[in-house]
Amino acid sequence: MATTADKVELDREFSELYRAHLRDVYSYSYYRIGNHHDAEDLTEQTFLQAYRHFERAQRESNGRPLRPWLIRIAHNLAANYHRDRSRRPQTQLEDASVLSEPHATAELVEQREELGHVLAGVADLPDDRREALIMRFALGMDNREIARTLGRSEGATKVLIHRAIKQLERSLEEDDDE
Which residues of the chain have pLDDT under 50? Predict the structure, then answer.
Protein backbone atom coordinates (compact mmCIF):
# COMPACT_ATOMS: atom_id res chain seq x y z
CA MET A 1 0.00 0.00 0.00
CA ALA A 2 1.38 3.42 -0.96
CA THR A 3 2.25 5.81 1.80
CA THR A 4 1.60 9.53 1.81
CA ALA A 5 5.31 10.09 1.15
CA ASP A 6 5.11 7.80 -1.89
CA LYS A 7 2.09 9.73 -3.19
CA VAL A 8 3.86 13.08 -2.69
CA GLU A 9 6.93 11.78 -4.59
CA LEU A 10 4.77 10.40 -7.39
CA ASP A 11 2.96 13.74 -7.72
CA ARG A 12 6.30 15.60 -7.79
CA GLU A 13 7.60 13.31 -10.54
CA PHE A 14 4.41 13.70 -12.55
CA SER A 15 4.64 17.49 -12.22
CA GLU A 16 8.16 17.31 -13.66
CA LEU A 17 6.90 15.18 -16.54
CA TYR A 18 4.08 17.65 -17.15
CA ARG A 19 6.39 20.67 -17.22
CA ALA A 20 8.91 18.90 -19.44
CA HIS A 21 6.41 17.72 -22.06
CA LEU A 22 3.42 20.07 -21.99
CA ARG A 23 4.61 21.98 -25.06
CA ASP A 24 5.26 18.77 -27.04
CA VAL A 25 1.87 17.29 -26.23
CA TYR A 26 0.10 20.55 -27.08
CA SER A 27 2.06 20.95 -30.34
CA TYR A 28 1.30 17.40 -31.38
CA SER A 29 -2.39 17.89 -30.54
CA TYR A 30 -2.54 21.17 -32.45
CA TYR A 31 -0.97 19.66 -35.57
CA ARG A 32 -3.38 16.72 -35.41
CA ILE A 33 -6.56 18.64 -34.57
CA GLY A 34 -5.94 21.96 -36.29
CA ASN A 35 -7.40 24.39 -33.79
CA HIS A 36 -6.24 25.89 -30.54
CA HIS A 37 -9.21 25.18 -28.27
CA ASP A 38 -9.60 21.51 -29.15
CA ALA A 39 -5.81 21.05 -28.92
CA GLU A 40 -5.91 22.45 -25.39
CA ASP A 41 -8.73 20.06 -24.47
CA LEU A 42 -6.86 17.12 -25.99
CA THR A 43 -3.70 18.10 -24.10
CA GLU A 44 -5.63 18.23 -20.84
CA GLN A 45 -7.21 14.83 -21.53
CA THR A 46 -3.78 13.40 -22.36
CA PHE A 47 -2.31 14.44 -19.03
CA LEU A 48 -5.38 13.33 -17.07
CA GLN A 49 -5.12 9.90 -18.62
CA ALA A 50 -1.35 9.86 -18.11
CA TYR A 51 -1.79 10.72 -14.44
CA ARG A 52 -4.13 7.77 -13.94
CA HIS A 53 -1.54 5.35 -15.33
CA PHE A 54 1.67 7.15 -14.36
CA GLU A 55 2.83 4.77 -11.64
CA ARG A 56 2.48 1.73 -13.91
CA ALA A 57 4.15 3.55 -16.83
CA GLN A 58 7.13 4.41 -14.65
CA ARG A 59 7.52 0.79 -13.58
CA GLU A 60 7.25 -0.53 -17.12
CA SER A 61 9.50 2.09 -18.73
CA ASN A 62 12.68 0.64 -17.24
CA GLY A 63 14.14 4.12 -17.08
CA ARG A 64 13.34 5.01 -20.71
CA PRO A 65 11.89 8.49 -21.36
CA LEU A 66 8.10 8.74 -21.12
CA ARG A 67 7.63 11.27 -23.95
CA PRO A 68 6.74 8.57 -26.52
CA TRP A 69 4.17 7.18 -24.06
CA LEU A 70 2.59 10.64 -23.69
CA ILE A 71 2.51 11.22 -27.44
CA ARG A 72 0.93 7.79 -27.89
CA ILE A 73 -1.85 8.78 -25.48
CA ALA A 74 -2.36 12.04 -27.42
CA HIS A 75 -2.31 10.04 -30.68
CA ASN A 76 -5.06 7.72 -29.46
CA LEU A 77 -7.17 10.60 -28.17
CA ALA A 78 -6.76 12.48 -31.48
CA ALA A 79 -7.86 9.36 -33.37
CA ASN A 80 -10.94 9.16 -31.14
CA TYR A 81 -11.59 12.88 -31.72
CA HIS A 82 -11.48 12.45 -35.51
CA ARG A 83 -13.60 9.30 -35.39
CA ASP A 84 -16.23 11.02 -33.23
CA ARG A 85 -16.29 14.13 -35.44
CA SER A 86 -16.71 12.05 -38.58
CA ARG A 87 -19.83 10.55 -37.01
CA ARG A 88 -21.30 14.01 -36.49
CA PRO A 89 -19.80 16.33 -39.11
CA GLN A 90 -19.56 20.03 -38.34
CA THR A 91 -18.09 23.02 -40.06
CA GLN A 92 -14.82 24.06 -38.55
CA LEU A 93 -13.71 27.65 -38.68
CA GLU A 94 -10.02 28.06 -39.27
CA ASP A 95 -8.06 29.62 -36.44
CA ALA A 96 -7.48 33.27 -37.14
CA SER A 97 -3.82 34.06 -36.80
CA VAL A 98 -3.20 37.37 -35.11
CA LEU A 99 -0.04 39.12 -36.20
CA SER A 100 1.62 41.33 -33.64
CA GLU A 101 2.83 43.66 -36.41
CA PRO A 102 0.80 43.48 -39.60
CA HIS A 103 2.90 43.16 -42.76
CA ALA A 104 1.53 43.87 -46.19
CA THR A 105 4.51 42.65 -48.14
CA ALA A 106 4.30 40.24 -51.03
CA GLU A 107 6.97 38.12 -49.34
CA LEU A 108 4.78 37.49 -46.29
CA VAL A 109 1.83 36.52 -48.49
CA GLU A 110 4.05 34.20 -50.50
CA GLN A 111 5.43 32.55 -47.36
CA ARG A 112 1.95 32.05 -45.93
CA GLU A 113 0.72 30.53 -49.19
CA GLU A 114 3.72 28.18 -49.31
CA LEU A 115 3.15 27.16 -45.68
CA GLY A 116 -0.51 26.57 -46.47
CA HIS A 117 0.45 24.26 -49.36
CA VAL A 118 2.87 22.32 -47.13
CA LEU A 119 0.32 21.94 -44.32
CA ALA A 120 -2.35 20.86 -46.81
CA GLY A 121 0.10 18.32 -48.25
CA VAL A 122 0.85 16.96 -44.79
CA ALA A 123 -2.88 16.74 -44.02
CA ASP A 124 -3.39 14.67 -47.19
CA LEU A 125 -0.78 12.07 -46.21
CA PRO A 126 -1.92 8.70 -44.85
CA ASP A 127 -2.27 8.75 -41.05
CA ASP A 128 0.94 6.90 -40.23
CA ARG A 129 3.05 9.10 -42.52
CA ARG A 130 1.45 12.29 -41.22
CA GLU A 131 2.00 11.17 -37.62
CA ALA A 132 5.66 10.38 -38.26
CA LEU A 133 6.32 13.77 -39.89
CA ILE A 134 4.61 15.67 -37.09
CA MET A 135 6.63 13.80 -34.48
CA ARG A 136 9.91 14.24 -36.38
CA PHE A 137 9.68 17.85 -37.51
CA ALA A 138 7.17 19.53 -35.21
CA LEU A 139 8.26 17.79 -32.01
CA GLY A 140 11.87 17.03 -32.90
CA MET A 141 11.53 13.40 -31.83
CA ASP A 142 14.26 11.03 -32.99
CA ASN A 143 13.55 7.81 -34.88
CA ARG A 144 13.81 5.68 -31.73
CA GLU A 145 11.15 7.76 -29.92
CA ILE A 146 8.88 7.75 -32.97
CA ALA A 147 9.30 3.99 -33.32
CA ARG A 148 8.33 3.46 -29.67
CA THR A 149 5.34 5.78 -30.03
CA LEU A 150 4.05 4.10 -33.18
CA GLY A 151 4.94 0.57 -32.09
CA ARG A 152 7.33 -0.01 -35.02
CA SER A 153 10.98 -0.86 -35.44
CA GLU A 154 13.49 1.94 -35.97
CA GLY A 155 14.16 0.70 -39.51
CA ALA A 156 10.46 0.71 -40.38
CA THR A 157 10.16 4.20 -38.91
CA LYS A 158 13.07 5.47 -41.02
CA VAL A 159 11.41 4.08 -44.14
CA LEU A 160 8.06 5.56 -43.12
CA ILE A 161 9.54 9.05 -42.70
CA HIS A 162 11.47 8.77 -45.97
CA ARG A 163 8.33 7.75 -47.87
CA ALA A 164 6.30 10.51 -46.22
CA ILE A 165 8.84 13.13 -47.28
CA LYS A 166 8.95 11.78 -50.84
CA GLN A 167 5.15 11.72 -51.06
CA LEU A 168 4.95 15.27 -49.71
CA GLU A 169 7.59 16.45 -52.21
CA ARG A 170 5.64 14.89 -55.10
CA SER A 171 2.43 16.49 -53.86
CA LEU A 172 4.04 19.92 -53.65
CA GLU A 173 5.60 19.53 -57.12
CA GLU A 174 2.16 18.65 -58.51
CA ASP A 175 0.72 21.77 -56.87
CA ASP A 176 3.47 23.87 -58.45
CA ASP A 177 2.72 22.40 -61.87
CA GLU A 178 -0.97 23.31 -61.61
Answer: 90-101
3-state secondary structure the chain: CCCHHHHHHHHHHHHHHHHHHHHHHHHHHHHHHCCHHHHHHHHHHHHHHHHHHHHHHHHHHCCCCCHHHHHHHHHHHHHHHHHHHHHCCCCCCCCCCCCCCCCCCHHHHHHHHHHHHHHHHHHHCCHHHHHHHHHHHHCCCCHHHHHHHHCCCHHHHHHHHHHHHHHHHHHHHHHHHC
| Number of structural domains in the chain | 2
Domain assignment present for residue 97? The answer is: no
* pTM across the whole model: 0.66
**CATH code where residue 65 lies:** 1.10.1740.10
Tell me: do 69 and 1 sit in the same domain.
yes
What does the pLDDT look like over 29-69, one tens digit per residue? 998 888 889 999 999 999 999 999 999 999 998 888 999 99
- Note the pLDDT of residue 99: 43
> 78 and 115 share a domain?
no
Residue 108: domain span: 104-178
